[in-house]
Amino acid sequence: MKVLAFGASNSSKSINQKFATSVSKYYKEDEVEILHIHDFEMPIYSADRERENGVPQLAYDFASRLDAADLIIISFAEHNGNYSAGYKNLIDWVSRIKGRKPYQDAHLFLLSTSFGARGGQSVMEIALARMPRDGGTVIEHLSLPEFPANFEDDKGVTNALFRSQLEAKVRKTKREMQKILDSKQTL
Hints:
- Pfam families: FMN_red.
- The chain has helices at 15-24, 47-53, 57-68, 85-94, 121-130, 147-150, 160-185; strands spanning 2-8, 31-34, 71-76, 107-113, 137-144, 151-152, 156-157.
- Strand 1 (2-8), helix 1 (15-24) and strand 2 (31-34) form a beta-alpha-beta unit.
- The protein starts with a strand and ends with a helix.
- The mean pLDDT is 97.
- By secondary structure, the chain is α/β, with parallel strands linked by helices.
- The chain has one domain: Flavodoxin domain (Rossmann fold).
- The strands form 2 sheets. It has a 5-stranded parallel sheet with strand order 2-1-3-4-5, with helices on both faces. Strands 6-7 form a two-stranded antiparallel ribbon.
């Protein structure tokens, strides 16, 4: 299985990048690629820019990475209760590629975390509502509250309850993805 993981933040110190990377380690038997969305920064989307210059190559490059993955792990940063501007701009550009939705038939494991007690639940609610319209199928999701209290760089999720929930969700995504991949082989 090919797994793609990234934090939906362009911060060089993103806790969501750390969280997505940490969760991707549960898929060590699979082919895992870690992306940083700051590598795909483009001008702020506008119809004028699109009309004058077309869709930037970086949007096509990002879309091809999405298309190559069997499972995509995204950890959403919450900026004022919504997507980060860097992520939103990237998806705005990808959505302008003719004939595609951003997450065209993708299978997703959505995460969020923050320093607060809700763990990015507001952005998670937005993502859960939006993903089907963007072409993605959400297999599982998890919000991790109070990141510094529940996560360590070398250990990942340290709180026993949250770690147990995460590991159950990882097992579910593996089972569901195996069914999906098996069904594709029988076609």
